[in-house]
Amino acid sequence: MAKECPACRLLNPDIAERCDCGYDFATHRIAASYAKPNDRDVIAQRGMTVAQVGVRNIKLGLGVLAAGLVWAAVVSNNGSGRPLGGLGWAIGGIVSGASFALRGLGQYRRGKRLDSRGPFL
Ligand SMILES: [Zn+2]
After folding, report:
1. Which chain residues have CB less than 5 Å from ligand 1, an ion?
2. Cα-to-centroid distance, 11 and ligand 1 (Å)
3. Tens digits of per-residue pLDDT, 6-32?
4. Helix, strand, coil abundance in the chain, percent, nearest 5
5. Checking CA distances to 22, which of 10, 66, 73, 103 falls within 20 to 30 Å?
6. Burial category of 52 from C-beta neighbours within 10 Å (exposed 0-12, middle 13-18, buried 19 and up)
């Protein structure tokens, strides 16, 4: 049997106590990652619940998405009638921002479900 990490959806062996992403199955919070001890994202999320990580990712994703939209508007309304270079970057920002926010939404939902079961199963 394997268990799915609610933070990153990685399948972990049943005996695993902590996922590679830093999620601790016992405390239901992000702790230090054994696999990626220097990962800045993991360090920033340390001590957070999955729902809190989800909210963080939604905010980050929406920020990137908004920046992409602004950038797209800037490069396509420059008066020359055709978009300047950089539209690809804008679209990339919109796409990755949206997928980041969606990932955060999934984490938030799974985290809320976990929270409702109490800190220790
Ligand atoms: Zn994980």
Report:
1. 5, 7-8, 10, 19, 21, 23
2. 8
3. 999 999 999 999 999 999 999 999 998
4. 50, 10, 40
5. 66
6. middle
